[in-house]
């Protein structure tokens, strides 16, 4: 039996008899799919009668303009996770470093090529922040370092000065720094945390992004990465079939980049509701850590929170299978006010 390790598994919940669920386990924009993206998908159904563009030329051009990055630095994929696996396949690293806790798919991808994985443990007494201790683990034996900013599941960001020292250490030691910025858009000041301005001078840096979270289209599967090493991107391209980004996904991505008002409304909603949830969790007696993106990471006020909320039709992410965590921790997505009130009310009834 395959063990599913991620949030958003509403299908298993349905199998267990839950027909209607309130899903806090997947960190998806609570505004839902933008109307413009929905319309672009509906009007572009005819594009499915032809093979999708294997080079994603129109989408790449739109990303190039939106990000002010040369098109040759961009590679699109079937979600960010697809590109993570393709990077690992292209590099075939012997030894890699990951954080713990962190997004589990990095280690899954590394294990698929027989890579030895070393873990840098984040400490609860340091609020699960990344500190300068990480520099001691960036040795010449490391080929690839996966880093997530903001981190998943903690929502902690990396100090920009430390991040640049990490990049310098990696460059001096021949380490590829794979930096996952998939949740960057949900930070209060995204531009203050991105490393896109370092790409031109550092061909050992690769950045990952997804349309999934911001535009609420996880079912379409669409992501991209940025890297100045064109040879590496070409090797990554050949690690998948040439048509793995569907025509509808490419159309959705082009339209999503035009949704400026949607992004502004998202920023305001996430900022407000994140504060509302943080305050509500604290009042219940939960301990909240980090949580600067569109999800909150906390130690709950009662044991077995996930199991006790599921019969009420509420799903959250039990972080018990994240490596590096001891005890009970949970992660919840920031949703709209009605849903957030329902969650806090249900948690308040548990003693």
Automatic annotation (TrEMBL):
Domain of life per record: Bacteria
Under Pfam families, the record lists:
Aminotran_1_2 (PF00155)
Kindly give the InterPro entries that the UniProt entry links to this protein. Answer: Aminotransferase_I/II_large, PyrdxlP-dep_Trfase, PyrdxlP-dep_Trfase_major, PyrdxlP-dep_Trfase_small
Organism of this sequence = Ligaoa zhengdingensis
| UniProt cofactor(s) | pyridoxal 5'-phosphate
The name this protein goes by in its record: Aminotransferase class I/II-fold pyridoxal phosphate-dependent enzyme
CDD domains per UniProt:
AAT_like
Q: Where is the Aminotransferase class I/classII large domain?
A: 21-339
Entry keyword set:
Aminotransferase, Pyridoxal phosphate, Transferase
Output the SUPFAM superfamilies linked to this UniProt entry. PLP-dependent transferases
Q: Name one GO molecular function term.
A: transaminase activity
């Amino acid at each position: 039996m395959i063990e599913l390790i991620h949030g958003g598994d509403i299908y298993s919940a349905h199998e267990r008899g839950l027909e209607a669920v309130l899903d806090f386990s997947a960190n998806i924009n609570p505004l839902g799919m933008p109307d413009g993206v929905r319309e672009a998908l509906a009007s572009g159904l005819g594009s499915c009668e032809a093979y999708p563009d294997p080079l994603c030329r129109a989408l790449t051009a739109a990303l190039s303009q939106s990000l002010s990055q040369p098109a040759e630095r961009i590679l699109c994929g079937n979600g960010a996770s697809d590109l993570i696996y393709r990077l690992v396949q292209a590099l075939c690293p012997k030894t890699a470093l990951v954080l713990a806790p962190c997004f589990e798919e990095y280690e899954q991808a590394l294990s698929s090529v027989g890579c030895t994985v070393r873990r840098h443990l984040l400490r609860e007494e340091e609020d699960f922040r990344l500190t300068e201790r990480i520099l001691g683990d960036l040795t010449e034996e490391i080929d690839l370092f996966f880093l997530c900013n903001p981190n998943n599941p903690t929502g902690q960001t990396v100090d920009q000065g430390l991040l640049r020292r990490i990049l310098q250490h990696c460059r001096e030691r021949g380490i590829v720094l794979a930096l996952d910025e998939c949740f960057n858009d949900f930070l209060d000041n995204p531009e203050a945390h991105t490393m896109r301005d370092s790409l031109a001078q550092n061909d050992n840096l690769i950045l990952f992004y997804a349309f999934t979270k911001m535009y609420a289209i996880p079912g379409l599967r669409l992501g991209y990465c940025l890297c100045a090493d064109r040879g590496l991107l070409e090797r990554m391209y050949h690690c998948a079939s040439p048509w793995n980004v569907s025509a509808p996904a490419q159309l959705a991505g082009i339209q999503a980049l035009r949704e400026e008002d949607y992004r502004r409304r998202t920023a305001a909603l996430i900022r407000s509701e994140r504060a509302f949830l943080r305050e509500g969790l604290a009042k219940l007696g939960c301990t909240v850590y980090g949580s600067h993106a569109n999800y909150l990471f906390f130690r709950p006020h009662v044991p077995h929170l996930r199991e006790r909320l599921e019969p009420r039709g509420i799903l959250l992410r039990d972080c018990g299978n994240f490596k590096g965590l001891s005890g009970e921790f949970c992660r919840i997505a920031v949703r709209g006010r009605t849903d957030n009130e329902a969650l806090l009310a249900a948690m308040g009834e548990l003693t």
